[in-house]
Amino acid sequence: MTDLLTHYRDDGPLATLFTQAGPLRFQALAVTFVGVVAVAVGLAVDGVTFEGAGRTGPASVLGIAAFVLLGMVGAAARRHRRVQWLVPPMLRAGEYIIIATLAWRTGTTEMWLAYLLLAVVAFHHYDIVYRLRHQRTAPAHLISQLCGGWEVRTIVVTVAALTGTLAVVLVVLAAWCGALFVSESMRSWVVLAFDESKRAHVGSEIEEEEV
Amino acid sequence: MTAQPGNITAICLALAERDDGGPACLLPAGDELLLTRLVSQLRWHGAERVVLLTRPEWVEACAAAAGAGVDVEGHADLSGMLTRIADVVDDATSDLLLAHADVLTHDGVLAGMLADPRVRSGVLSMSRMMPGLQAPRLRISRGRVVASESAYHSVKSHNGYLLGICKIGRADLGEAAAAARELAGLSAAGLPDRWDDEFAGKVADRGARVLADQAGTVVLADQLASQGPLPDGFPRLEALRAGLAAEYRVRVALPAEALRDDPLPLMVVGLIRRDVMMTSAYLRELFWDRPLSADDAARAYHQMAAIDEDGVLLDSAVKSTDGFFTTFFVSTYSRYLARWAARHGFTPNQVTSVSMLLGLLAALAFATGRTAGMIAGAILLQIAFTADCVDGQLARYTRQFSKLGAWLDSVFDRGKEYVVYAGLAVGAVVNGAGAGIWMLAASALALQTFRHYIDFSYAAQQHQALAASVRGSIKAPDEGGMTTWETTVDRADRSSSVLQRIGRSGIRTSVAFERQPWRKWAKRIIVLPIGERFALISLTAAIWGPRSTFTWLLVWGTVAATYTATGRVLRSFA
Lengths: 211, 574
Fold this sequence. Notes:
By secondary structure, chain A is mainly α. Chain A has helices at residues 4-9, 13-20, 28-49, 58-76, 87-106, 108-134, 141-146, 149-163, 166-194; strands at residues 24-27, 77-78.
């Protein structure tokens, strides 16, 4: 049984590779936090000093690389006994800030396309939680392979921003992920309606309601 | 309200003796008897098989009262009864209900347990003070029953009482049968060590507590009498003593005798110690009693009839954890809309869908960018929010819970909000705004999702710490030796760190701060819950426009995120 916090991470194929490397001696919370700080500093430094197209310069790239790498290390690192719960929100913050900032610096079209992609990704992130809560199953593993997980999406968007193909990539990514996220979620509800007993359940019911 | 379909099995236990002899379940309840009333309630809520277990000498009377269709069986001892329970559990194919046959309670109470899919396995409980032996003590932690009393088991501390109704979900039937067999084996072989001592201690302690007042009067009267003739009009000593004896019989002796052979609390202890997740379903303001005399039964029936069940159900359809705006500006009237919707046959999912549709219309109105559009959008968003409150209240009021419904409700809440952000951004672009407004919208979305993930993740870790294990041996009369999550926490306490001390004092401050109601509401407003957020969006958009809406959302949201995260980090270390 995988636990809820692992599901909430939304790891893609690359981060999953790290988990296969076995438990690392780092503290997951610490490395993830350093990654988020690195990305904030990198994006801020470029915003002030770098004057190139789209202002995605070396500092941004370094910051993003650090975030992705450290976040993936976090997937395999030691868990904090008390405040491990800070990790998933940090992964959300990193991915969303990167997508929004890179698009903002590229152009108006890219910016609203980025909003679209964020809305699609947010749907998936809420869907993970709500389906675990109400259906007691997580979205299919195949989805995280096909739609990347936080780390692959971040890498794809960054490469697109660097190669000047951000608009196209945002459209394709939003359409592809949106279609898969929504259709897979609907499929799960149809399957549930037909057969409830055959499904593997994750943990016990969680009775929180957010506002 | 509709009856629930289902092939529920119900096991009723008629073990308590009434004060003038015979089973208490044959006491009158209005025009019926306690037993017949309960059986028809159970049937109404989908019980297909009803098995009544009683003492051998009461089989005839119970069978005559219960009528056809109820299997009435007599068992001379606890072990026989538990073995029989295990067999019935084995045969069950769906949820199973274990209940005392002499319980007098509202329909809504049984419906709440049987129809609510969130209670898979659980017990009916209440937190009001119950001094006697009729309702064993429980300790409930975040909705889970972590310790329970039986005749032979004690709890370290308690914050609730077990009200003689226990539901065992389909998935837990295996554990239930195993628990019943284990208990049957133990009681057949003579009770384990210390079990009898535990029972005797409990009866003495609880008996003294129940009769403290009356016994005091008798002692006082005895002392007065020894000093000379009693004053005129003073109750006669014999009458006082007889009254005390009768009181003792009804309040202590009979309940104790019923508890001694009662498999229900034992089953609850067995399930908990086998690590079955037992939820607590609260009685709230509804009525519950187990009368043991005709007088008590008449009084109880009268009290129950005086309660406006519909009003209580409507009140409890409103969530007590809602924010300030929702509680005082929406729920005050939305509950009546919910009742209206229920009477006109609307389903919660229909209301949810209407709410989403209104949210989309609000977004479209905002997207026009015109003043009239902003005002229309603001109003539409408020109507959408009202509908959003109505759907949940309607679901709780009519007990139409569905997994898909709950998912749709949550997803549409988020969908509405983020579609409105997009609408506001488009409206600003129509008026000449650049990429910056989309960046503001994206930041607001990112911040709100981040805040929700703090909630989700924190709850998940708390939940898993709690769900860890309450496993323990059924043989131990106390909780000692149990590997409860609390003992793990206790162990951690010894390595008390600075963070822990800060966390503890933080919680103390927080609890002390909440003593005054306005401070409690202030705390709920700071975190900008959905009601406040939607009100903020409507107000700022209608008055100043989209840029101001996003600025407010970001500033307030950042304060809220900082406040919540800090508090929860401290709480995690405490």
